[in-house]
# Entry
Amino acid sequence: MDAADRMRRGWRSLWRTGLDVVFPRDCVVTGEPVENDPWRYVSREGLVRLRRFRPFLCDAYGLPVCADEAGAQTYTPTSEIGPVFRQGRTALVAQGAVRRMVHVLKYRQGVYLVEDMARLMLETPGMRDFLADAMVVPVPLFHSRLRERGYNQAVLLAEELARQAPSVRVVDLLARRRDTGTQTKLNRRERAKNMRRAFVVQPRVALENGRRHVILDDVFTTGATLNACAAALVDAGVEWVDVVSFAHG
# Structure
């Protein structure tokens, strides 16, 4: 370990100590104190309660979203969005505590959850292999939304994945052309229409077209956002585009 690495680790230790003072280490799932390192805000009981997907792939998207650990069907493969990406992975069912984690990260300045969220993703069977040597492309926010929130949760998650899995490389390639607004009340077809051509490759970026690109978002709902991002990369000449998300649902 060189001096620069020691300095970075020292600053990170101080930062985490300060973070624990501002945000006491209570489990985001159970509310109980967390004492199981390396987890920061998910306790042992909380880990048990999170709903994870079985590592089975559905034909349409390659996503392990056909059933959760309890065997409940959560997603029916469909070709309505005409997937441009080749395949994808997700880690958790976006319900209950998982949805709360996403909400806290996005709307309540919960950046302190990113370390645990990335770890949850990387502990999903096959995820480390899926992300190995990938160029991870975070889904961009519209500039007014980024200014309002102060950060892009997809970028933070991607950077933390790269920290925990050093072969991952984060690349800022995409821009959002327009504010697409919230899609909560839109159905699958309406979401696809709303996101059509919403993204573009940023000008003056050097694309490595022969490399595998993996677009990352916090939640995969219908696939409209990730598919629109994939379309922008494919239109620019990228040959191999996959997708990944923290949660699905």
Remarks:
- The domain at 83-248 is CATH 3.40.50 (Rossmann fold).
- Residues 4-11, 64-71 have pLDDT under 50 and may be disordered.
